[in-house]
Amino acid sequence: MTMYSVLIADDEPYSVESIKNNIDWQSLDLEVACSVSNGADALAYIENHDVDIVLLDVNMPGMSGLEVCQHIAALDRSPQIIIISGYAEFSYVQKALQFNVLGYCLKPVNNSELTLCLQKAVRRITSAKTLQDGQEQFLDLLYSEDTEGFKEFCRKNNMTANPYIVVIKSYARSLILDGAFFTHVLGHNLTLHLFSHAPSLDSLRRTAVTNAPCSIGIMDGVSTLSTLAEDIEQCTANAYQSFLQPGRYIYGSHDVTSGRRTVEFARYAIKNNARNELLNCLNALKEPEALGQFDIRLAVKLANLITTSRFWNASDDDYIYSFDDLYTKFDSFSEMIDYLIAGISTILESDTSAHGNNLLFIRIISKLNDCYNQNLNFTSLAEEFSVSPSQLSKIFKRESGKTMKQYLTDVRISKAKEFLLNTNSSILDIGMSIGFTDYYYFLRVFKKETGLTPSEFRSRNV
């Protein structure tokens, strides 16, 4: 039987002991994991442990309970919160509800009232777990070749064959919309929603304005089961269009034919060693009208095409692995273009003579093996080992025969296999734990490396 963990945060020892001793925790499938006496300790515990329910006093020394609620709301996975307070003022209740607090119990705590709140919390957690399992099965079937199995899953779960897709990219926390028959967290603060009817654009705009900075990607019409995976990826790209066209809240699909031609011309210029033509091509992209000709996928393709070409001193840190990498590295598409132009203009082809350095290589390998689950920045890694990024990349490739990107991917996939076989953790949790913040990207990489989706690998080997 699954037992859910409870954290009690209250600076009154009598109140804590009373709650511990007067609630039948076992009958609720709950256990008190820890009790703390101030807000800072409560937040630290929540950030470092899997906590399902928090009983939180409002008035504690240092950080108040409401401040803790505000910090919890920004976390990727938030526990169920029940406020315990000696204050009956409506203003406290109102503030607590802003942070999606489950219940509000007044001191001295009524045991029956608190038990009802705890039962409600357990129902929510159980329901969310059931939903997550269904979501993972849905996504696994979506990316498999089992078309009939996917259609059967949709039929059993009353999922429409022609959904409307909405993807929200928020920069504060993951946003879940009401009315969707399917929701899923795709990555860091990125959520997918499927609707059986067209969502209100006014409602979506209000959501974006209220939770700014936030951008929303939509499709112009309904999707079909046969094109759903492709349409979700398109809608996700739409949600990132603010990188190219800031200032709007809702982004639909648009014609990128001209952008594709630009990328192909850049490829042609690189192939034919035409540096000046490539620079002219990039300079043309600084014009305002060019922004509407690209989407985030073409921006990633263009950046990687150039930074892996003969016109660039190769560095793993310049490679863009995901859409979020662009947001981390650049503030806008225009800044990215300026960076590429500057790089081509100043970085001349060089083939730095290689000298074996087995000790350095061993230190790099050790670092990658130990920190595979972190968002590694290869520029910082080069600084740590007192070499340039390009030198670091060349040493690694020479000694191992692989790029650092491929080696890191191999380590992560190996760890993923280990966790799939030896734990009951969800696919999403496994992906996050090995360094993938984008659920879809993890699925694609795993299938590319193994030929199977994570769920297929688990079911065939367990």
Description:
- The chain is built from 20 helices and ten strands.
- It is α/β, with parallel strands linked by helices.
- The chain has four domains: 123 residues, 3-Layer(aba) Sandwich (Rossmann fold), CATH 3.40.50; 84 residues, no CATH class; 90 residues, no CATH class; 104 residues, Homeodomain-like (Arc Repressor Mutant, subunit A).
- Strands 2-1-3-4-5 form a five-stranded parallel beta sheet. Strands 7-8-6-9-10 form a five-stranded mixed beta sheet.
- The chain starts with a strand and ends with a helix.
Q: What name does CATH use for the topology of the largest domain? A: Rossmann fold
Look at the structure and give the CATH class of the largest domain. Alpha Beta
**Percent helix among the residues?**
40-55%
Oligomer status: single chain
Q: Supply the number of structural domains.
A: 4
The best one-word shape is globular
Spans with pLDDT under 50 lasting ≥5 residues? 348-357
Strand content: 5-15%
* Cα separation of the termini: 21 Å
According to DSSP, the number of beta strands is: 10
What is the succession of H and E elements?
EHEHEHEHEHHEEEHEHEHHHHHHHHHHHH
Mean pLDDT: 82
Q: Please tally the helical runs, counting DSSP H or I stretches of 4 or more residues.
A: 20
Largest sheet: 5 strands, parallel
Report Rg. Answer: 25 Å
Structural class: alpha/beta
Q: Return the CATH architecture of the largest domain.
A: 3-Layer(aba) Sandwich
Spell out the CATH superfamily of the largest domain.
Answer: Response regulator
Strand order of the largest sheet: 2-1-3-4-5
